[in-house]
Amino acid sequence: MNPKIQTRLHIFGPLPNNLSEIYSDYKSFMGDHELFNNSPNQAKEKVLFVDGGMQHARLFDLNAMNESTKDFDYSWIGDGDGHVGDIPISSKDTHQLPTEKDQSDLAMAFNLYKGESIEQIFLHGLIGGRLDHQLAVIGELFKWYEILKPLKMVLFDENSKVKMELFSGEYLTKHFGTLSLFTLEKQLVSLRGALKYQGEKLIFHPFQSHGLSNEAQGEFSVVTEKPVILIRE
Fold this sequence. Notes:
Helix content: 10-25%
Number of helices: 5
CATH architecture of the largest domain: 3-Layer(aba) Sandwich
Low-confidence stretches: none
Structural class: alpha/beta
Shape: globular
CATH class of the largest domain: Alpha Beta
CATH superfamily of the largest domain: Thiamin pyrophosphokinase, catalytic domain
Radius of gyration: 18 Å
Number of domains: 2
């Protein structure tokens, strides 16, 4: 039996990051990053540029001649207030939003994939700037994690380093340095492996300091009942 081909969604927001300064294309970034190397060899890759996130299109070959030569499926969504110029994507994959709306572009971006099976979601250019915007991003991630039910969501910071991971269940990862763990709902959390502060079935309350400033020195695991967000420093 052939293994199931997973779908990975890559979302690019409007904030600058230095990906293009380090790598000439996104495939090189994926190939060099441990997080992607631990992903399945066969995966269907989808890329969504959110409004001004179109600036990151230079990392991709949008001019691939046909579906068989494309490494990614591309889409764009936005109201146009963060992007100036043409959208070099077919009209069927372009989603123009009204300027006046009661949801963010990111929320409406996630809505495009409602009902689809997406195992992993990677996000760039969304963390930074105004605090209220960052909190809104985190809130949308928790909401859409519950709806889309991926294995994990990963946010990269402005330096293209892993900043946040959203997951539930048993999650094995590696880190050297400080990290913090937060939940939106009261739950029991177990911390195991190369962590300074470990424990079984610890009571975590929403955004409490209990999970603040732990220290990792290698591989560790987090076991949860409900979604949590891991922040790396």
